Each structure stands twice: as C-alpha cells, then as structure tokens.
Amino acid sequence: MKKKIVFIIPPIEEKLWTFSTDLQYLGAASIAALLLRDGHEVSVIDCAVDCRAVGKLNKRLLGLKPDIAAVPAIYGTLGNSYKIARAVKESSGSLVVFGGLPATFSAERVLSECPHADICVINEGEISMGALADGRPPAEISGLAFRRDGEVF
Description:
Shape: globular
Structural class: alpha/beta
Mean pLDDT: 89
Number of strands: 7
Largest sheet: 7 strands, mixed
C-alpha cells in the first residue's frame, strides 16, 4: 500500500521561524525522489517559508493527512523539530521520523527528549525510509532507532 509522506523542514532556532534559504536539504530531496519513484505521494512543508506558525502547520497537516511525517533536523533546528513532532501528533497522529545529524549521532537523546518522535534514521535514509514507507516493521529495518515498551532499540 502506497503511503502519503510529508517532509517538514524546521526553521533554524536562532532565526525564529524566519527564512532558511541558506540551508540545503539535499538528503530530504533525494529521499523524496526515491519515494516518488516508488509510487508514494510526497509533499514538502518548509516551515520557515510555508508555515511560519505552528497553527498554520496544524492546518496544513489536517489537510494532508500524511501517514509519515519526516523531519530532517540539524542541531540548530532541534528545538523547533520537537515542536513540529508535537504538532504532527496533535493534528494527524502520523508516524514521526527524524533524520539528519541529531538522529544519526544522538538518536537516544532525541527519542528521550521528544516523546512525539517515533523513529530516528541513523546515517543515510534512502533505504530505510523506503522500507518504512513500504510497511516493513522498524525492527526489521537496519539503520533505525525506535522506542518499544519505553526502551530505545
């Protein structure tokens, strides 16, 4: 079954929901391209440009009804990434997948600090995101950290 996946680009904290045009999310773009190739429905919300407030993000998510919300985070966006994860859970209940440097190098920290994050992709996400979108359980996919019964695996 094909999934609806939204990539939500968080704004840099120091810029407080201002333009993030100095960041290039090539990893998210390449993963999105592979998911599109596999027939999944993919959209992108750049919070610094498209949704400059959490309320607007909630409305967009209600309209999209994604199965998976992918949040490509960097350390300068982590606080806002946590806010995005909360908004996703409150508005759509979607699976929240973190990627980027914090997910790779601090997955246990991310999952303990953000109860709304479900999964962290460790290293590159092209294969693991495709497997998640195809419905494979996280425990069967290498390169993921996730919570089960309150413990991080």
